User: Which sequence fits this backbone?
């Protein structure tokens, strides 16, 4: 049964029934019972369309007051096509067949197929006044018609189009509904995101302004409102949320927004008059709105009533929702199934109370549900394979279909999708691909579709975050396909082609992923990068081609590392390390050896060119320091580009004075060269000089008499003094020396806490770092933090502390301020900040300035604070057994030689202090390199032409011990002890 009202229509029942069968109420509502079932109805401004029976379409030109004419209902000649839906504009219409074909109806009542959509299966169509929309089952949205206000969404200054154009900015977003108004358009995603574009003169796009939009734009004020339906009028828009809440916005001059006002609304606003009624349907006419409350079988209307379109019998406007007084039979024997509004007309479709509900006219895009997966797996070996292949292509070639396949259904959580929540059920993603991976045939087909169709389609500019779900889904699929490098490369390119805002959102999504799924993505790009590095290392001809691919892979890995640092999972730095980097260092070492001996090994120019390519690759890799293990970082220091030698000529008796003068005179470029130290006493060039210089220079600086540092309670660590007694320049030189030691791979003894190295890397020190410097005071601060809030007022503490024998007010604006439960955290933070930052700010900045005058920040940033400290200071992990095990022997010596056997017996009996003195004697360092004692490769060789009176000698640059062939253990013990305690050229005056 149909009920209709609105602008005058001949009382002939639209040609659906005889005129005398139509009944009218006192309020002007007509009712009729069509002879055949009405499948769909669409009301345009001056066109009415019906789908009757088994897909037969009829249209009628409605009366236009200017012309005063009404056409007759005319059946369309559709040949064998059966129509499922019709959507009418002002004078034109589009029809949708059951097979998904779109037909266009023009003025002569002739239907023509839209050839551009012939290869698409369309599931929804919509008409504005003069523009059209079509949504295909693979999630693609097409628009055509007039584009005077941007209603096609194709971009500014784009012309009108008579043929459908793909709306690329909505590609990848799984759409649930499309709707068109006068000159504006809307699309609704499966997760309730609302996108509008076109004319916005009255705020009908809900964006808070009146500027026309030429591309789809998300209506942020409707985010997470669980929108399930949209209807557009000429200049206003209505949305319906799950739960029955109605929002309206746009033109309100006829009261069509229902806010008891005639004002426009630029943003969505709840219709209070419908609050709590659980509205189930909405429909917008030209200037009026209908709402259906199915539970009570009631239709509400509001807006323009000048043409009787409100059904209240009065030709007045109405700004609040009021019930339409439908004929009694509508309530007694029928239930309202659907409301329709368009132009200046309204229509209600009813069915008998005991009838089956009408099927939902709105079809959704194809998704990968359990039934589809079951069919793909069970029928892939049958004669249905061709059909299965088509289904695989339909789903897996479409980002929108994939994105809509795995949304979280429970508790409507997918409606909470935001820039920090993807709305994806990742467990269902894994389960689905586990099932599909059971069949190799399916996986082969998936690989082809992903490579040829899906990945190339990802180069889009997304209008909403739902489009990014595919970037979370794909790694699980690529993992099943076996980490194919070509697929990963295309995936990386697609990620990096996203605009910056979308890249940030994708990082957010990654950071919120469960650890298992984040690890899958990391492994994908770690494996890809490792393979590229290996190929570039061993196949020199591939360097140029693979360099861009490696750069992109590393860029994505950088994003993942950043996301991992924010993730609360269990990924560790070791999960990002690429061990193949060390293979590149090995190759460089071999190549450098060949270059040094080029006259034996071939063309020097070719080798230099190859080295340049390797160094270029190393430069690229160093932009991602997290992929280096400590060994690789350490080796990178040795392969940095040298600026030539930086030579200091010093007097042993005025070591620091001469050193500081050399540093004053040196240019910044010279400081970055390899250090050479010459002593005025002999002018002999030797690496021993450099190591001796560092050892003695830092020993002098650490002398308590120098007053450069304050020592902690245990006298094991140093820190900068709060009160300066020396020129700031001295700390600048200290920074320079530390920078020189770092760049020259020299381990020095300068026992700063980890806080210093954090500060060099711009990482803020914490209470834990303070505890290393002052364990007792840090314990007291932790006690304050742990103190019961109920008793915090009784701590009897104020914001006044003693540090470096000085009383300090931590809050100078409020002297004597008490520490309470409300401010104890601030107190502790301020305390730590004062000690480690504020009190030493000037001194540390001078130190830092000197350090970075020598060192490149990019090189230092390779290291974590713990690693930086280890590289500069070494460690105290003295594993003497490893030193002995790794020792090698030359000439007549071997490990069974009597002198060697006696030597190690003597060594094992030395005190720990003497063993460290021996390490200093043979290496120039008294601490263990950061990579462990295994890095100390001691070479022992006989000192020929020596007697039992000669002392052992050492070449520290090569870690060589020249040992006379002693005959007795006592001689070895005496001579070795004397050698390791020799003053090495520095005499007291």
Assistant:
């Amino acid at each position: 049964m149909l009920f209709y009202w609105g602008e005058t229509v001949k009382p002939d029942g639209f040609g659906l029934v005889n005129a005398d069968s139509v009944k009218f109420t006192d309020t002007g509502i007509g009712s009729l019972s069509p002879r055949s079932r009405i499948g769909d109805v669409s009301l345009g401004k001056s066109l009415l369309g019906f789908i009757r029976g088994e897909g037969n379409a009829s249209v009628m030109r409605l009366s236009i007051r200017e012309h005063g004419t009404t056409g007759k209902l005319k059946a369309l000649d559709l040949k064998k096509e059966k129509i499922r839906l019709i959507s009418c504009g002002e004078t034109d219409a589009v029809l949708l067949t059951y097979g998904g074909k779109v037909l266009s109806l023009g003025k002569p009542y002739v239907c023509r197929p839209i050839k551009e959509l012939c290869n698409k299966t369309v599931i929804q169509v919509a008409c504005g006044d003069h523009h059209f929309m079509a949504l295909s089952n693979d999630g693609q949205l097409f628009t055509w018609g007039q584009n005077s206000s941007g209603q096609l969404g194709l971009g500014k200054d784009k012309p009108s189009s008579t043929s459908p154009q793909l709306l690329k900015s909505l590609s990848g977003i799984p759409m649930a509904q499309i709707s068109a108004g006068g000159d504006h358009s809307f699309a609704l995603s499966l997760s309730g995101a609302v996108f509008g574009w076109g004319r916005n003169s009255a705020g009908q796009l809900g964006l808070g302004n009146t500027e026309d939009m030429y591309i789809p734009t998300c209506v942020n004020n409707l985010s997470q409102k669980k929108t399930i339906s949209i209807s557009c009028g000429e200049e206003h828009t209505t949305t319906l949320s799950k739960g029955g809440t109605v929002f309206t916005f746009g033109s309100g001059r006829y009261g069509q927004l229902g806010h008891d006002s005639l004002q426009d609304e630029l943003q969505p606003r709840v219709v209070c008059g419908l609050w709590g009624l659980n509205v189930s349907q909405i429909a917008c006419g030209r200037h009026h709105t209908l709402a259906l409350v199915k539970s009570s079988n009631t239709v509400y209307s509001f807006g323009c009533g000048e043409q009787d379109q409100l059904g209240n019998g009065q030709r007045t406007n109405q700004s609040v929702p009021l019930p339409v007084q439908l004929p009694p039979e509508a309530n007694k024997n029928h239930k309202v199934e659907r409301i329709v509004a368009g132009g200046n007309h309204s229509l209600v479709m009813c069915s008998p109370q005991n009838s089956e509900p009408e099927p939902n006219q709105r079809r959704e895009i194809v998704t990968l549900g359990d039934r589809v997966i079951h069919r793909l797996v069970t029928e892939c070996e049958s004669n249905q394979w061709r059909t299965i292949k088509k289904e695989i292509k339909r789903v897996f070639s479409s980002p929108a279909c994939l994105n809509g396949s795995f949304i979280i259904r429970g508790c409507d959580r997918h409606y909470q999708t935001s820039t920090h929540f993807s709305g994806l059920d990742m467990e269902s993603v894994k389960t689905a691909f586990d099932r599909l991976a059971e069949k190799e045939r399916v996986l082969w087909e998936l690989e082809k579709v992903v490579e040829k169709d899906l990945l190339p389609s990802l180069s889009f500019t997304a209008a909403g975050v739902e489009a990014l779900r595919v970037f979370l889904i794909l790694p699980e699929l690529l993992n099943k396909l076996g980490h194919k490098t070509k697929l990963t490369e295309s995936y990386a390119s697609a990620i990096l082609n996203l605009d910056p805002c979308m890249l940030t959102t994708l990082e957010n999504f990654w950071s919120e992923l469960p650890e298992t799924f984040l690890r899958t993505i990391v492994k994908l790009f770690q494996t890809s990068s490792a393979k590229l590095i290996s190929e570039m290392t061993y196949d020199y001809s591939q360097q140029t081609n693979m360099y861009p691919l490696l750069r992109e892979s590393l860029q994505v890995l950088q994003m993942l590392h950043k996301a991992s640092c924010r993730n609360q999972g269990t990924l560790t730095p070791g999960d990002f390390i690429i061990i193949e980097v060390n293979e590149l260092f090995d190759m460089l070492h071999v190549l450098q050896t060949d270059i040094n001996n080029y006259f034996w090994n071939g063309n020097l120019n070719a080798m230099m060119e190859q080295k340049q390519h390797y160094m270029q690759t190393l430069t690229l890799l160093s932009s991602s320091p997290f992929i280096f293990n400590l060994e690789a970082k350490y080796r990178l220091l040795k392969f940095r580009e040298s600026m030539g030698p930086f030579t200091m000529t010093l007097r042993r008796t005025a070591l620091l004075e001469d050193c500081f003068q050399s540093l004053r005179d040196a240019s910044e470029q010279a400081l970055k060269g390899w250090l050479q130290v010459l002593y005025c006493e002999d002018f002999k060039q030797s690496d021993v000089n450099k190591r001796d210089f560092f050892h003695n220079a830092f020993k002098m600086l650490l002398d308590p008499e120098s007053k450069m540092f304050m020592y902690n309670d245990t006298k094991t660590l140093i820190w900068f003094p709060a009160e300066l007694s020396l020129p700031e320049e001295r700390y600048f030189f200290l920074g320079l020396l530390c920078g020189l030691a770092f760049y020259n791979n020299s381990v020095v003894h300068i026992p700063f806490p980890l806080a210093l190295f954090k500060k060099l890397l711009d990482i803020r020190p914490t209470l834990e770092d303070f505890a290393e410097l002052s364990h007792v005071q840090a314990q007291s601060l932790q006690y304050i933090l742990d103190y019961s809030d109920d008793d915090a007022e009784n701590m009897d503490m104020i914001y006044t502390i003693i540090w470096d024998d000085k009383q300090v007010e931590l809050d100078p604006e409020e002297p004597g301020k008490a520490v309470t439960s409300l401010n104890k955290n601030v107190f502790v933070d301020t305390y730590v900040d004062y000690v480690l930052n504020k009190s030493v700010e000037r001194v540390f900045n001078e130190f830092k300035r000197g350090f970075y005058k020598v060192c490149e920040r990019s090189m230092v940033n390779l290291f974590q604070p713990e690693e930086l400290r280890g590289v500069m200071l070494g460690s105290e992990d003295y594993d003497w057994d490893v030193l002995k095990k790794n020792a090698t022997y030359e000439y007549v010596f071997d490990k069974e030689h009597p002198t060697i056997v006696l030597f190690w017996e003597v060594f094992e009996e030395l005190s720990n202090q003497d063993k460290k003195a021996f390490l200093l004697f043979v290496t120039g360092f008294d601490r263990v390199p950061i990579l462990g004692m295994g890095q100390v490769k001691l070479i022992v060789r006989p000192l020929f032409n020596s007697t039992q009176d000669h002392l052992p000698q050492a070449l520290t640059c090569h870690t060589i011990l020249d040992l006379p062939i002693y005959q007795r253990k006592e001689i070895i013990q005496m001579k070795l002890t004397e050698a390791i305690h020799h003053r090495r050229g520095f005499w007291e005056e």
